[in-house]
Structure formats: C-alpha cells, structure tokens
Amino acid sequence: MELSHLRYFVHVATAKSFAVGAKRAHVSPPAMSKAIRKLEEELGAPLFERTTRRVSLTEAGTRLLARCREILGQVDGIPGEIRGGDAPVGGALRVAAMEVFSIHLLPAALASMVKRHPNVVPLVHEMTPDQMERHIADGTLDLGLTIGGGGARGVVYDTLGSSPGVVVTGRDHPLYGRARITRADLGRHPFVVPSFFEREHLPSLDQFPDALYPRRVGATIELMQTGMELALAGAFLGYFPLVSVVQHVRSGRLRVLGGLRAGPPFQLRMLLRTGAPPRAAVAILRQELVRLLGRR
Questions:
Q1: What is the dihedral of CA 56, 94, 194, 151, to 10 degrees?
Q2: Burial class (CB in 10 A: 0-12, 13-18, 19+), 218
Q3: How far apart are CA 124 and CA 226, in angstroms?
Q4: What are the distances in angstroms from CA 24 to CA 10, 63, 121?
Q5: Residue from 62, 53, 76 nearest 10 by CA
Q6: I want to staple 127 with a disulfide (CB 3.0 to 4.6 A). Which of 39, 132, 135, 141 is the partner?
Q7: What is the pTM of this model?
Q8: CA-CA distance, 284 to 294, in Å (whole number)?
Q9: Is 197 helix (H, G, I), strand (E, B) or coil?
Q10: Cα 154 to chain centroid, rounded
C-alpha cells in the first residue's frame, strides 16, 4: 500500500470529487482514478459510492479516512521531531471561528504569527459550533474557535480564557454620557440581538440574561459585525463579549454601560481533534491567542 495513494484518497474524500481531488493532488484525473482503484483492490472493499452527480464515502471509506488522518499526521510530523526546534513552521492552517474571535482576536493572533512564520497559510472559515465540531472530528479542519459546543465525539475542548459580556452603545446614544443603564432603560431603549434564520425560538445567541433583565428587541442580525456597527452608530444598545469590542471601547467609540449585574462570562474555547498529533502552527496560534487575552 503506497503512502501517496492514501494522500490521494484523502484529497478525494475531503473534496467529494475525483476531479477536484486530482487537482489538489497535482495529478491527472485518470491517474487519480487508477490509484483509488488499486487502493480498493488492496483493501478488498469499495471506498466511494459514485453517481453522476456526487461522490460519497462508503462505511469502509469513512473508517479509512479516520486512519489516514492519524497515519499522515504522524508521517508529516517526523521532520519536526527529527530536526527539533529547527523545524520550519509552514503550510496550510485550516481554522474555523465564530465572530467572537474573528472580528479582532483571531486576526491579531494570525498577523503576529505570520510575521514570524511567513510560510504559514491561514485558511479561515466562519462556522457555527456544530459545523466546526463535525469538521474537526473528520479532520478537515485543524482547529475551531468558539464560545459554544461541547460533548461531540472526537473533539477536545481547550479553554483559552474567558471574556465578560458588556452592554455598550455609541456616542450618539442617549445613554452614552450617563454610562449607566437601569431596568427601566431596558424597556425604553432597543437592543440589536443576534438570531439565525429559522432558529428564532432558541435562546439569544449573545447570552444576555433575558430571564433576569427582560429587554426590548429593536433589531435582529446574524452577523456580529452588523450589530456592532448599529451600536457604534448609536441606533441600538448591544451586548457583546468584551474581547470582541475592546478596541472600540478603548478608543471611546463605544462605552460600556454599568448598572446591571454581570452575567456569566463567555468561555473562549479552541476545538481540536482527539488523538491528533499537535502541529507546530496550532500550538503557536494558541500561544498568541492566550497572550492577547492576557493583555485585555
């Protein structure tokens, strides 16, 4: 069984396409098909279900993909183990993140890392916790950054730190100068609240303690950045993790409003695949994130 054929298999399995898999592996489609057929013959089981429209893994293919992740991860880690601290850090770093991270914290950490290790190529995607858990478990992502999730098989939840939630508003809002909010204000001044399409029945995604402090909802948004801009404009109050708005608070464009009892802090988590050998780039990014969290 050739190692190159296992790599080809992973490319097809993750792309769900022989043509795209061949392109990623830099081989011709006929060569890719021949390699997969040989692998299937050696294993004595079909690895893909092929139709005119799609390619999907069989049960045997799913098991092989998990084993390939372990085997190839170990093989790819050999040069670093041999060279020790002199090993270069590079290659694609596949990251999924929620906006809590991607608005400020993650870009700052990636920029710092890439300055020192310019051969790292960050590939960043926006995902919900359940999506990133699924892709972390099957090995198509190196890590995920989230405030939610928990308990998915094949996923390790590493807490990087926490961030308090804060009520904020922009300079043009009536409460900006007072810098405080009361229970009565919650009914008078509308909030912008995150909510996903067809998930409006779920608890508020911003984790505001609505049961303790009922508030007036003036608008709902899916993108945190949109909610932040509405708060910056003074049109609405917003409730965000401090780590996501800290730059605007420091500049004075947003003001934190006191007066309410703080709710539980947001738990900032890194998701990793269970049993996967840690990559140097992942460890470096983690260090940068923790360092930046310590500077808040």
A1: 70
A2: middle
A3: 19
A4: 10, 22, 15
A5: 62
A6: 132
A7: 0.69
A8: 15
A9: coil
A10: 16
